[in-house]
Design a protein that fits this description.
This protein has 378 residues and is of the alpha+beta class. The chain contains ten helices and 18 strands.
Amino acid sequence: MTDTREYIQEHSSELVDLIKTLCRIPAPSNKEEKRAAFVREWFKKQCGPVDVYIDEALNVVCRVNYSPGAFVSVFMAHTDTVFPDLAPFEPEERDGRLYCPGVGDDTANLALLMLAARYVLTRKIPSEEGVLFVANAGEEGLGNLKGCRKLMEEYAGRVKQLVSFDGRLGNLVNRAVGSRRYRVRLAAQGGHSFSCFGNTNAIHLLSKLIADLYSVTPPSCPGGPTTYNVGSVTGGTSVNTIAETAEMLYEYRSTDREGLAFMEREFREAVERHRAAAKSLEVEFLGERPCTGDLDPIAQGALEQKAEDLIRAVIGKDPEKHAASTDCNIPLSQGIPAISLGGYYGEGAHRRDEFIELASLPKGFELVLGLILRCMEG
């Protein structure tokens, strides 16, 4: 423990510098190539001879004590951000805070994972089974958890447990919020607003479908709440044109598989009720995130307990346990023990005024490194 505390103190400034460096490397979902390349080279330069590669999904995977066919524990943080910008951001430090889009979600946690991994690698920490340190792609939005999906496919049947470092200090995600997402495109007759008055209007027809969807009463499921949302509506040409096309983005979420199945039926039935009125109606499936499957409560409880004990020791209070949509959705849906937790205090995730509290990083460092070492003990 003394050695880890010295390591944390000695590298606190380096941690901040690494966060700033990562912030300057654009990484929108599905365009994480530059940040992935930096992380891979960092491992090679900082950790000596290492087994590290970038896979087809743009995950950076660093393998420790790895044997083909053997079980592995996975520790990951995602490289992508919600922001589409391909120009570099410039982080700004002021009043004890570091401001930058994506600085917390998930850049700070990624930097913490990288420095914790270097500790394990350079000190040759033993473990009962193999370890994967993963800077994964595609966690946000329409990234559709592509990185974690790919990883779980590649190591199918061999993942003992998975820890995702994502979010703020004190949070502990232990259940998955599942979701399905769609784009609905609708076409109508359209025409001039005066000479063609009476022709069908795509925006009007789409609004009727939306009203129908919003009349649905979500089911009460034992696993938790079910929700839905129309998040974007576009269409039409001008104020004096009857809209010929319109589209929307729709999703529903639930912590319960029955809730997801119920909402799928309601969505499909609503679409069919409105199909005849439209010139055409297309439904495009954009992605899904599964919710929790059949878990071994003893194995899941043991992993959660390690995190709970350490969070309590580091921040002096009990963790806030809750369900969320994270990379853990994939292993949890497969019955593999998984949790997600973060290593900083801050605000503004998914906003351009996002910031982290720099003074919180040592505690986050202690938590991330400490949990990795405890999990490696078995």
